[in-house]
Amino acid sequence: MRPIQMVDLKEQYRHIKDEVDAAIHGVLDSAxxxxxxxxxxxxxxxxxxxxxxxxxxxxxxxxxxxxxxxxLGLQPGDEVITPSFTYIATTxxxxxxxxxxxFVEVDPRTFCIDPVSVEKAITPRTKAxxxxxxxxxxxxxxxxxxxxxxxxxxxxxxNAQAIGAxxxxxxxxxxxxxxxxxxxxxxxFPSKNLGCYGDGGAIxxxxxxxxxxxxxxxxxxxxVRYYHDIVGCNSRLDALQAAILxxxxxxxxxxxxxxxxxxxxxxxxxxxxxxITTPVIEPGNTHVFxxxxxxxxxxxxxxxxxxxxxxxxxxxxxYPVPAHRQKMFTDQGAGGEDLPVTDWLTKRVISLPVHTxxxxxxxxxxxxxxxxxxxxx
Length: 377
What we know:
Number of domains: 2
Radius of gyration: 21 Å
Shape: globular
CATH architecture of the largest domain: 3-Layer(aba) Sandwich
CATH superfamily of the largest domain: Type I PLP-dependent aspartate aminotransferase-like (Major domain)
Distance between the termini: 27 Å
Strand order of the largest sheet: 1-9-8-5-4-2-3
Helix content: 40-55%
Strand content: 5-15%
Mean pLDDT: 96
Largest sheet: 7 strands, mixed
Order of helices and strands: HHEHEHEHEHEEEEEHEEHHEEHHHEH
CATH class of the largest domain: Alpha Beta
């Protein structure tokens, strides 16, 4: 049996090596490393795949969030509602721009932002909501969008973990995550479901004016070379990464389907074990399982993690310290909210390996050892 990885990028590359290598050599032969046809082709293909009118490439997912907030004209002191149970980039950017993060709860079933908690947190200074499609499933966007409309707020979707996931509205309309809010953002970090071989990101919007503004911000605030109309930054997706991503985009649905198969096998193995709560998928949604995260009750999580490690099984805690308890915020007088659901989850979640190259032997080895530890302890 091959060694088990949280994400096996080496084995994934082996299956697409010829096509990826050809794409890379095409860029090298052209000597156009910034912008050019590979970047435009990838953006066009990603727009068609997601149904977004505009795709603006950038250097990484954190930049995507920053550019989105800059484009909306948010000012220091404006409040932005965000879950605390998320990767730090979501909230870090808010503080970087001197906005005020307002941390709210997540739904303990889906791990995504709780609409009830959002509405309770709105004040006259609130300007935006940042729902995070955590672990690969959409947040409750119909409710979030309704709240935003009623209160005149922007919605910035953090879609770094859910590219390719689908959300179903009560009308039956099915929409890709990242395309429903005012702006959507994503990351192409190598371990993502659609990952490059370095760093990269993208921004989505249906709004022509916002798209133009974000393109300018990502390019030093210019639309005509050397004429800088607004304050911007330097955030590019280079041509090599775009060429690689274009190869992988054609396989994204297959990659996501493979992750769902792994998740289903995990679910079958853990069924009937009361101390393990497996992921809940909301009706009508597709979960792309960027992470496979379970909740443990009455289990020594650290002990389980060590037990698995001793048997060459990796696992991760996403995330051990929620944003509202991070020193970077408490030192600034932010954070400190009473978020019992978030605190409860951070003590109980653990993520198991899930990726496109897992086989039945891997899954059986992992699940057998998880169950053995629980039964012995």
